[in-house]
Specification:
The chain is built from 17 helices and nine strands. It has 415 residues and is an alpha/beta fold. Among the domains are: 102 residues, no CATH class; 103 residues, Trna Endonuclease, Chain: A, domain 1 (3-Layer(aba) Sandwich). The protein has a five-stranded mixed beta sheet with strand order 5-6-7-8-9, with helices on both faces. Strand 5 and strand 6 form a beta hairpin. Helix 2 packs parallel to helix 3, helix 6 packs across helix 13 and helix 6 crosses helix 15. The longest helix is centred in the C-terminal third of the chain and has 18 residues.
Length: 415
């Protein structure tokens, strides 16, 4: 609190405050701030004439027992809300805190928010434009691999060096002890959650589950536990974009929790245990193919609108889910099911391979069996179409005829 008040005091002086004492508490700080904003010399934005106040990393100003939010509430309700030319902008990367203590607050800040802006990860198309603007031109297959590792986070992409290849950038950023992202995963989790141990345990558990796990399965793990604490932890991880609750088809009420953040999956699979000295070493390991399969699945989930556009159903409201069925000790599954209201269900087969994907006889028979089990168990009253989505394109062949839709990686870059 004392550190935050000293920093706030510094900005008060810059805004015209003449009291050189550091405020003793937040009520005094906002009282003096009120006086600064009331001065005729208070800075106004030239075009709009508004007095603009920007509080960055808002959650970390609210230190324990500081009464920061009470003081801000007093400042806003006593004076700020009546000022039509005052614009107060608060920003925070701890999304769960912003949701629970500001946006969904039922107390002091209830109905005080006039506009909310949630910054979402970039799409593949936006990532490509960012990297291109930085002088980095990658083939679309490498761009997809880049997204599978870094996700759509501009901060990570902006660290890449245009003089290096994608693999060299991964090595420099992630695998070298001096790399900008070497400890990023742990630092990020610990910066967002004050008691992150259970959050870390949930994410590590989900990184090993391709389809995800139910709440019941998570609660049975000793390091995670259950009850209201698990509910809170899952909610916080979901609000911050690390996981999402993915419905199981056909029952929308049954959900699996999946690790949704590509960088977290990459860090847990390739970086955190420090088993690999470089990306090339990781690439040669059996763990790479498992990671790539799961990472491409996450990439597709982040680009469902683009997949729908490739299917010609951009304007159609759909329901997306996963499906799995245990049949005689073996599991049949589809990572992405797109259910349309116009009588069609798409079973999406997701493939990420070094070369264009080739539908062999064995793969054809496996997919045929999967569709057969889906029809037997779900008994849909709709036509079932197979869509093959391949990051690196598809080889023509007679067995490809099993699919009604063939989508290559380029389609994921659509607007």
């Amino acid at each position: 609190m004392s550190g935050q008040l000293r920093a706030f005091h510094d900005r008060l002086l810059a805004a015209g405050d003449t009291d050189h004492r550091v405020p003793s508490d937040w009520f005094e700080a906002f009282s003096r701030f009120w006086n600064c904003l009331s001065l005729d010399t208070a800075y106004r934005e030239p075009l709009s004439g508004k007095r603009v106040v920007f509080l960055d990393e808002f959650p970390w100003m609210d230190t324990p027992r500081s009464e920061f939010r009470s003081a801000l509430d007093w400042f806003w309700n006593s004076w700020g809300s009546a000022q039509t030319d005052l614009l107060l902008i608060v920003c925070g990367s701890a999304t769960s805190w912003m949701m629970n203590h500001l946006l969904d607050d039922h107390g002091a800040f209830h109905n005080r928010i006039r506009k909310r802006i949630q910054l979402m990860p970039f799409s593949l198309r936006e990532c490509e434009k960012l990297l291109s603007g930085n002088g980095i031109i990658l083939p679309k297959t490498e761009m997809i691999e880049c997204y599978m590792a870094f996700g759509g986070i501009p901060y990570y992409l902006d660290r890449m060096d245009e003089r290096l290849s994608l693999i060299q950038n991964m090595d420099e950023l992630c695998f070298k002890p001096y790399g900008d992202l070497y400890n990023e995963y742990d630092n990020l989790i610990r910066s967002l959650f004050r008691k992150p141990e259970k959050h870390l345990a949930i994410l590590e558990t989900l990184s090993d589950a391709e389809m995800g796990l139910s709440r019941k399965s998570l609660s049975e793990i000793k390091a995670i536990g259950g009850g209201s604490v698990l509910t809170k932890d899952l909610q916080e991880l979901e609000q911050n974009g690390f996981i999402h609750a993915y419905p199981l088809y056909p029952d929308r009420n049954e959900v699996l929790y999946q690790l949704a953040d590509p960088f977290s999956l990459f860090a847990l699979r390739a970086l955190r245990k420090m088993e690999y000295a470089s990306f090339s070493q990781f690439y040669r390991s059996p763990a790479y193919s498992v990671w790539r399969k799961n990472a491409f699945f996450r990439t597709c989930l982040h680009h469902v609108p683009q997949i729908k556009a490739a299917l010609g159903i951009s304007g159609v409201e759909t329901h997306e889910a996963a499906w799995q069925c245990f049949e005689m000790g073996a599991m049949a599954q589809a990572n992405l099911v797109i259910d349309r209201p116009d009588g069609i269900i798409h079973l999406c087969e997701l493939k990420s391979t070094d070369e264009p994907f080739e539908m062999t006889r064995e793969a054809y028979e496996q997919l045929q069996q999967r569709v057969s089990i889906f029809l037997q168990k779900v008994k849909p009253c709709k036509a079932v179409h197979v869509a093959i989505i391949s990051a690196n394109g598809l080889k023509p062949g007679k067995y490809v005829s099993i699919a009604q839709n063939l989508i290559d990686g380029d389609a994921l870059f659509a607007r």
